[in-house]
Amino acid sequence: MRLIKTPPSAKLYLHVKPVRLLTSLKAGPKYATILSKEIDCTYSHTVKLLDQFKRFGLVEFEKKGRIKIVTLTSLGEDLAHAFEGVMMRLNKLK
């Protein structure tokens, strides 16, 4: 029997904080500090997640002075929309 390996990106999205972070960006570009407060996560963990998102091509950073503004790519928007739908369906299971 052949085992199917789980891709690294799948491991990332099976956790609540990364999903909340991605769906939080649907509202528009934001700073990492604001995102960390919205998802109730430390700033350092938020930046770590955003760096992983960038490697997967889900977000882009735009530097304005000392601050980076985070925006979703089209792939990131599609995935955030899909996760939002899944979360709404899961909430109905209660």
Q: Could you characterize what this model shows?
A:
This protein has helices at residues 8-13, 16-24, 32-38, 43-55, 74-91; strands at residues 30-31, 59-64, 67-72. With 94 residues, the protein is of the alpha+beta class. It has a single domain, classed as Orthogonal Bundle (Arc Repressor Mutant, subunit A), CATH 1.10.10.10. β2 (59-64) and β3 form a beta hairpin. α2 (16-24) packs across α5 (74-91) and α3 crosses α4. The model is unreliable at 1-6 (pLDDT under 50).
Helices and strands, with pairings:
Layout: H1 8-13, H2 16-24, E1 30-31, H3 32-38, H4 43-55, E2 59-64, E3 67-72, H5 74-91
Helix pairs in contact: 2-5, 3-4
Radius of gyration: 14 Å
Give the termini distance in whole angstroms. 36 Å
Global structural class: alpha+beta
What is the count of structural domains? 1
**Helical fraction:** 55-70%
The appropriate CATH architecture is: Orthogonal Bundle
Beta strands, count: 3
Q: Report on the biggest sheet.
A: 3 strands, antiparallel
* Lateral strand order in the biggest sheet: 1-3-2
| CATH superfamily placement | Winged helix-like DNA-binding domain superfamily/Winged helix DNA-binding domain
- The H-and-E topology, N to C, reads as HHEHHEEH
CATH class: Mainly Alpha
How would you sum up the global shape?
Answer: globular
